[in-house]
Amino acid sequence: MTGYLTYTFDWSVILKSLPFFERGITVTVRITVFSIIFSLVLGLIVALVRMTPGPIGMIGFAYVQVFRALSLYVYILFIYFGLAAVLHIDLDPFTAGIVSLTLLNSAYMAEIYRAAIQAIDPGQHEAARSLGLGGIGTFATVVFPQAWRIAIPSLVNQFTDIIKDSSVVALIGAPDLMYQTIERVSFYQRPFEFYTTVAAIYLVMVVIVAQLAARLEKRLQRHLA
């Protein structure tokens, strides 16, 4: 108890470590952006497979169930160490982190897409067909734009989850923001200052993404109303 009472704060170590934070933020942003893009694309593919009748639909169902069943912590260790040992795939920490985040979040996004697509009035499909649009044309020009607007709030939640979950890549040595923070804590022995700072940085990134998404949602509502 005495040790806590005599703890003296030294925020100057944060200023000394700014170059390390900048490197970590750069890596975190890159991992987050790539993971979001790949998750959006893969999630839509899985959703369409999931909605296909028969055995193909079961493949999509199995994908969603498997990749939502376990934690990112397990996936990233399995992909980085397990696949490397069994399949002799030499993934660097950066790539392994993106693959893990993509597999996990695409499963959640697939369900978001599926719910949004199924929320579209079936009459929209019939109206598009009556105008001579085929299945792909109907989906691309009528169904998906409306489903995208419905899905945005839930997708934004996944975007923020990806930002927060990206800190797990430090576990396998990816030099992201959390990895740089852990190293600085070890060097300076100042856990409170560094972990408080990194928490604030993650909070700012999440708020920025949420604000950008809110603006996008308003713009889509204006154009698709």
Describe this structure in words.
The protein has 10 helices and no strands. It starts with a helix and ends with a helix. The chain is mostly helical and 225 residues long. The radius of gyration is 22 Å and the shape is globular.
List keywords for this structure.
mainly alpha; single chain; MetI-like fold; 225 residues
CATH A-level architecture: Orthogonal Bundle
Could you say how many structural domains there are in total? 1
Largest sheet: none
Shape: globular
Oligomer: single chain
Note the total helix count: 10
Q: State the helical fraction.
A: over 70%
Short structural description:
With about 220 residues, this protein is an all-alpha fold. It has 10 helices and no strands.
Provide the fold topology:
Elements: H1 2-5, H2 12-16, H3 18-50, H4 55-69, H5 72-86, H6 93-118, H7 122-130, H8 135-165, H9 177-188, H10 191-224
